[in-house]
Amino acid sequence: MKIRWRKWNRVVHRDLSYFFTGMTIIYALSGIALNHIKDWNPNYIIHTKEIQLDKSYTREELTEAAVINLLEQLGEIETYKKHYFPADDQLKVFIAGGSVYINLKSGNGLVEKIRRRPLFHQVNFLHYNPIRWWTWFSDIFCVALILITITGLLIIRGKNGIAGRGWWMTALGLIIPVAALILLL
Amino acid sequence: MIIILSLRFQSIYEPKPTDEMNKKFAFGFITLTILFACNTGNKTGQDENKDEILEVALSELMENREKYVDKSVLVTGIIDHVCRETGKKMFLVDPENKERIKITVGKNIPTFDVELEGSELQVTGIFQELVIDEDYLAKWEEELTSKHDTMEEGHAQTQHGEMADQGLHVGDMQQISSYRKQLEESGKDHIAFYSIECIEFAKK
Predict the structure, then answer these.
(1) Per residue in B30-41, pLDDT tens?
(2) DSSP, residue by residue, A28-95
(3) What does the pLDDT read at residue A123?
């Protein structure tokens, strides 16, 4: 019996491509994000604002009620979570979605507000393998990517197929990684 | 459910009765995926490490460090800082005595969320010692050179730097020179830092 391998090849290529469309986009987006982790924070949007209190405070003065009152002066109403003193002249207040640092002597401080960056936070979370079964699933995805690539090479016949233009384009695409290995390794 | 939907999908879009190949492929592929997912349950190293968990105050842990190295410990404190860049480490403090310890992700915890900051947590994990000596610093420098891309400030970019980072937000080169100075000042051949590799944590 003649095996219709070209038809199987198309089926494998088509269905794996459909099935892993979402995964490809997830890993591509998180790949871009992680490539540029030095230049931006893909996980969080962080805003900081310098503040200056009208007077200095002592640690003893700053009870929980006084800290809440201080926050209200800074426009942080009902955001208080907890506070502590990293040093005798420093106050750190944890607020919903951020924190406030104050130098008690100088009255200088910083309000940091932080929130998850939509989309990138979620795709990065998945990229970091949150649970063991996800690692297995992403392994399957990687194997599927190899299959999609190989089957893709074999779909087109003729002068634009792997025996013609396809071969040259594939070779061209390999030049950059090979050059990187030669130059950097 | 997925299999039924897949077959249904196939039958709607490819109603040719002779084309059984597509159905077989879709069926086989999805079944394999589900089997993989089901057979790889969360059998983690957690249970192995759950024996003899020593509940200890952070101050006691830091005062008698050598006694607890490589042991399973449970400590309670406030999360002072979570790494914004990677989420792979956070710092737990005892507000009473200012003791602070680095908590790193274990194999079943991908990242820590910044929302944990300010929460009182009970962290269970393995207490670990990191010894930094001249050999460590030399390997770190070598790793940095091989990266072909150095970052002078902001955040450690190497594995050695990530391990040695104590949340100071300085680059690799700055950290290396700081540790080298600390080594010289200590008069010893090494300095040590301590951290807990987190197995699990819970809000108190």
Answers:
(1) 665 555 554 544
(2) HHHHHHHHTTTTS-SSEEEEEEEEE-SS---TTT--HHHHHHHHHHTT-TT-EEEEEEEETTEEEEEE
(3) 93
Calpha distance B196→A23 (Å, rounded)? 33
CB of A109 closer than 8 Å to CB of A102: yes
How far is it, in rounded angstroms, from Cα B177 to Cα B161?
Answer: 12
Contact B105, B112 (CB under 8 A): yes
Domain ranges in chain A are 5-41+118-174, 44-116
Distance CA B197, CA A131 (A): 17
Q: Which of A43, A82, A128 sits opposite B78 (nearest CB)?
A: A82
CB contact under 8 A, A133 and B29: no
For the whole model, what pTM was predicted? 0.74
Q: A136 or B149: whose pLDDT is higher? A: A136
Partner A contacted by B98 (CB < 8 A):
yes
**Alpha carbon B134 to its chain's center:** 25
Beta strands in B20-104, from DSSP E residues, in sequence order: 54-55, 72-82, 89-93, 100-104
Question: Residue A38 and residue B111: Cβ atoms within 8 Å?
Answer: no
Average pLDDT over residues A136-150: 97
Residue B159: the pLDDT is 77
- Other beta carbons within 10 angstroms of residue A149's beta carbon come to 11
Q: Is the pLDDT of residue A151 over 50?
A: yes
Rounded CA separation B160/B140 (Å): 5
